[in-house]
Amino acid sequence: MTDTPEDMLKAEIRGTLALVTLARPKALNALTRAMHAKLSELLWSAARDPQVYAVAICSESPRAFSAGSDVREVIALARTDMEAARKAFAEEYGLNWQCECFSKPTVPLINGMVMGGGVGITQFGTHRVAGETYSFAMPETMIGLFPDVGMCHVFARLPGHAGMYLGLTGRSIGRADAYALGVVTHCIDAAKFEEIKAALVDTWPVDTVLDERHVEPGLGELAPYREVIDRCFSGDRVEDIVAALGAVQGAARDWAHSVLGDLGRRSPLSLKITHRHIRESTARDLRQTLQVDYRIAAHILAANGDFYEGARAVLIDKDNAPRWSPAHLEDVTEAMVDRFFAPLGAGELVLPTREEMQEARS
After folding, report:
1. pLDDT at 135
2. Is residue 131 within 8 Å of residue 193, measured between CB atoms?
3. So what's the pLDDT on residue 1?
4. Phi, psi (degrees; rounded to nearest 5) at 32
5. Are strands 173-174 and 135-137 parallel, antiparallel or unpaired?
6. pTM beyond 0.90, yes or no
7. Are strands 129-130 and 135-137 parallel, antiparallel or unpaired?
8. DSSP element (H, E) containing 86
9. Residue 44 has pLDDT above 70, yes or no
10. For residues 293 and 288, what is the distance between their CA atoms, to the nearest angstrom?
11. Residues 57-103: pLDDT tens digits?
12. Which domains, ranges and CATH numbers included, belong to the chain?
């Protein structure tokens, strides 16, 4: 397979449906800058085309909808052209905002894993359909980054403190938990995806098409631990969360200790950045959250620290032995975290308002 955007991200108009297919299976549909640009172009075109009623996004891969954005590409850019690396983040966050402001129904048909940048192109539309092998995660703290693409805005609004749990640990959840939390809108087995596309080709109402095929997913794996999550992940500091998890007794003790083990493998600096970003995002709308995402990402690129080391350990050398700096939570000071939220002056990302986005489609 060649690596042109047209090969990796296919688009066609079928009746009143604009169908987008992610087709980079060997990379689990990791999204490149070129794929982001192509999707943005397609969304603008669909918004302006009176024939298009809805947009569906699907994957050719049975294993994954999208494993996220192509981190290797960003790291390579940062090593040679820092401005281009920053621009890659700006373009991605601009696309996330475009997805939020898109004026027609969007129906991502998600089976297999969806992480990071894949979440960013599906979470902000009107509908989100989860197949039977759906698996959601924002694992950025594992590579010295933070849950970006606007997800701290979402995490800040999930029931209880489930968003803080998902953001800090990077753990995956299946469709039952995702549906219970509102991360997805419908649970429909992948065998029905072609039926959905066919109905949308003929302009059947999206809600009717999806509601008729939705199946109740039952209780998720998190259901027995929701009370523990809400109690432990409400802490004002990451250290408080760690202490609360360590104090859990009874039936949930082993589970809580496994969560502690996961947190212990994450970048301490990333954990504290993420904790602050989620808490502060309760007072921000999505546009503001994405602009802060860019501020943090730009500082992380410039720091030449845990993000590069995490990418090396997990994605490049794959030794899974990152050397974090600082290595311990207690060594990460508030002043260190402050630096990643510091304004960029003339370098800030300024996204159009929702009204300006609506005007631009005409």
Report:
1. 98
2. yes
3. 40
4. -90, 170
5. antiparallel
6. yes
7. unpaired
8. helix 82-101
9. yes
10. 9
11. 999 998 999 999 999 999 999 999 999 999 999 999 999 999 999 99
12. 5-360 (3.90.226.10)
Q: For residue 361, with 0-12 CB atoms within 10 Å meaning exposed, 13-18 middle and 19 or more buried, which class applies? A: middle
58 residue type, one letter = C
DSSP track, 16-79:
TEEEEEE--GGGTTPBPHHHHHHHHHHHHHHHH-TT--EEEEEES-SSEEE--B-HHHHHHHHH
- For residues 184 and 129, give the distance between their C-alpha atoms in angstroms, rounded to a whole number: 6
Q: What are 314's two structure tokens?
A: 């997990």
**135, two tokens:** 């698996």
Phi then psi dihedrals of residue 11, to 5 deg: -140, 145
Q: Which residues pair with 14 in a beta bridge?
A: 17
Q: Is the Cβ–Cβ distance between 166 and 138 less than 8 Å?
A: yes
Within its chain, how far is the Cα of 60 from the centroid? 20
End-to-end CA distance of the chain: 36
Pull the structure tokens for residue 122.
Answer: 């599906």
| Portion of the chain with pLDDT greater than 90, in percent | 97
